[in-house]
Structure formats: C-alpha cells, structure tokens
Write the structure tokens for this entry.
Amino acid sequence: MLPRRATRQVTVGDDRVGRVLIGGSAPVSVQTMCAGYTYDIDACVAEIERYAKAGADLVRVAVPERKDTEALAQIIPQVSVPIVADVHFHYQRALEAVESGVHKIRLNPGNISDRDQVNAVIDACKSRGIPIRIGVNEGSIIERKDKQRRAVELGQYFAGHRSGHLLAIMIAKLEEYLDIFRERDFHDIVISAKSMDAALVIDAYTEIAARFDYPLHLGVTHAGTRDTGSIRSVVALGSLLANGIGDTVRISYASDHIDEVKDAAEMLCCLGLRARKGVELVACPTCGRIQVDLFTLVKEVERTLMPRLELPMKVAVMGCIVNGPGEAEGADVAVFAGDRRGIIYVQGERVANVPEPEILNRLLAECLAFEAKVKRGEATLGQKVVKIVPPDPIGDLGSGHARIAAGLVQPVTVSQTH
Ligand code: SF4
C-alpha cells in the first residue's frame, strides 16, 4: 500500500446508513454531488442511490433554500449513504440541515465568515457529533463584502505570481477560519482547497498537509468537460495520493456525475487504494499490426461482458502477438488476435482459437465459466496455471530476465504492491 499521511479521523454517518471514516488509516472515500434539486425529493433520492450503487461512499446535496433543508428530513431516511449538506451564504441552512439529520456540513469561508454565525453552526454540529468540511475554493476566496480589502486582494491576485498569491490567500483564509473552530475546541474537521489549476491544487494541499493534521478532501474544481476534467483531476489528485496526501476525493466536471464516481474509483484502484469491484479490462491501442476490428471488440466486451461478471478478474483484449502473450500471461482471461482470429487463454492456458465473429461470445463463455470455477473454489483470481513462453522479440540482446540473472542489472524494489 502507498504510505498515508497521519491525520485525525472524522466519522460521517449513523447506524442506519453506516459510518464512513475519513482520515487516519481509513480507506480513501469517494464523494460526488447531486446535480438535481434537493427539494425534488423522489428525484433526489433516486439520484443519490444511483451514485451509491456506482461506488460513491458519500453524496453531497445543495441546500440554497429552506425547502431544500426541509426536504432533507424526508430524503435522509430513504438513502443508503451518508449525506453532506453544501452550505453557502446562509448559515441558517446549516442549522436547518443539522435539524433534518444531515451527516456532515460543508461551509465556505468565502461566504459565511461572521464569527457568531460560524459559532452557531459549530455548536449545532458539536451537539450532534456532525463533522464540518471547511472548503476554501479559488472561486470564492477573494473578499466580496469589504470593498477596501477586496481591492487589496484583487490587486495582489493580478499583480504577482498568480498561484503564489492565491495559495497565500487560501492559507490565510483557512488559518483565520480554523481559529474560530479551535476557540470552540471543535476538531471534527475536514479541509479542502480546490482550484481549477491542477498545479495550484497540488501546491495548496501539500502546504496544508504540512501545516494541519486534519483529514483532506481532495478536488479540482471547475475542471471543464470529462475530457479535460478527468485529466486535470487525476493529475492533481493522483499526485497527491501517491505522496500519501488525501483522505476523501471528489472528481468533478461537466458531465453525468456517475462518470465522476467511476473515474474516482478507477483512480483509487490504480493506486492500490481501493479494492476493485468488477472486471479490470486491459486492451491495446492498436497499430499497423492489427488483424481484427479491435475497437469494436473492446467496446462490445465493455458493454456486454463486463456488466455480467461480478468478480474483479483481469480480462485482456490484445491486437496481435507482440504484446498479446505477455498480457495473456498476466490476465485471468485473455484474447489476442491473429489473422482474423482470436486466441483465447484462461490463466495462461490456451483454451480456444476462433474466427473473428465468434471471439466475443467465446470470450464471454470462457469468462463466465472461469468465474463459476472461482466461485466453486476451483480456481483463484490472479493465478496463472501455465507459463506462456512468447517468442523473444529482443533477439540476440536477450530478455531483461536473462540480464538480471547474469547480474548485469540490479532488480528494483517497488514501493507499492497491487
Ligand atoms: S498488441 Fe499488437 S496490435 Fe496492439 S498495439 Fe501492440 S503491437 Fe499493435
């Protein structure tokens, strides 16, 4: 496992929905936010459950109006994951959400900064054991009410190094805000400091991690469409997580939020921070050696085969002999193509050689048969039975293994296991 930064731990949830731990040694949790109106109770419940089913551990809802916090009282008993109320501008919404049984509150220091109002929220949360996320966002950290201060902050923002000033303002706001919580001896806190700038996100969280021991909610905000947003998010969040920073994540971009959940879960699986649920699909990008319509095959595997399999088996779909045998060796079930045919392997053992039109059905049949064997205890995931010896493409140079065996290359110790 990757090393994790030591932090305090907060608990979000209750007996009915279960408790999600954030920080400490708890697994990194995945969050998303509802896109629909909270006051539309049935639709909101359906949306939350859709995200929960896709792998979200927590779901946040917006509560801009009183009708939203009132709806929470009916939504919360119907859902299966803890709910976070996203509060901006009106501290009363936080108090109402607490009354409605919400499991966590998010406050923005950029728009709820009155000390008495913050204290009222802290006291309400403290009496019910509800954590608060302090979410400092790039979009709302420049002072809005105090015109003089706004002029100074905007001047700094535009005058100097943009990220440096933003980071300094973010940290200053956070310090100032945290003082209110410390004075109240309230430490059930999660911190976030989001920006659309991936580099700033990395800098901000690295700095915050060095200064505070509260758990961190990672995110890149306003990240664009899924195409750009997923890359910005994974670059920033993946870098931080690989360095042990981050306790809960939200990937956010302008797309169906179900995609956010899937991308966040995949990122955590890739880093070895979450156990994979369902198939891990490996596929080659294709090149001038391809001998079947691999893109169509992979899409069909994704569409028809993956939803039918429950176990986290590794399935490889490879275009030719170059990397096909190597991937087949590491996969539970694999197909590699050759001359309009597909050669199928199950845990390293060749089981079929079929014409292109039959590849999908045969692959599905082999996957289902293998899954049934695993369930009966007759096979184990990730264990190859037969060693495939692929043709050596290196020729006279020999393989890396041979060079290591001859003492010419030192084996490298890796820091993580998968
Ligand atoms: S597996 Fe074969 S077809 Fe696929 S990218 Fe590699 S060399 Fe090309």
